Amino acid sequence: xxxxxxxxxxxxxxxxxxxxxxxxxxxxxxxxxxxxxxxxxxxxxxxxxxxxxxxxxxxxxxxxxxxxxxxxxxxxxxxxxxxxxxxxxxxxxxxxxxxxxxxxxxxxxxxxxxxxxxxxxxxxxxxxxxxxxxxxxxxxxxxxxxxxxxxxxxxxxxxxxxxxxxxxxxxxxxxxxxxxxxxxxxxxxxxxxxxxxxxxxxxxxxxxxxxxxxxxxxxxxxxxxxx
Length: 227
Hints:
Largest sheet: none
Distance between the termini: 38 Å
Structural class: mainly alpha
Oligomer: single chain
Strand content: under 5%
């Protein structure tokens, strides 16, 4: 089997796993006794948040490599994970707004958790704009690397926002001291949803990185032919 075919098989399988996790959450998981069925969006919302955070961690690793000037490929991978991170941050915000309407009575409020997550989306967008507007070279790598580290620094603030500030957002219920407050059946479905989305996001990032690498090789070959 060729490498391209293997990549597509992995992508299809991870996509199917994510779809299966959504089906399990939306159709098979038990109904919450307090919120009813509206809570089921958690099986898309929370995995999206975890994936956006994981992308920020990956961006932190690649940003450190960029600052240390270890090669242009690290900047390509930074761009790939920043794009994927932005995608899932938007999905997190969108599903959170849908959940917030029946729960809080409003689509949006400048709650600490929502505001810091919105800032994450702005930072991802700023990184991509900066990358596209700055000329290639070591200086772009260092500047993008510094912003990538700042993006990663926002994640602990998002996570702790419900503890540090008074907020409408529910307190931590999954990763917390004393264990999760969720029922085991709900928690197992949610963890499967998180894992499936993380795998799919990893596949997306790798495919985008390979695409950027190939484009760079084509542009380099075209430049040499012109000379």
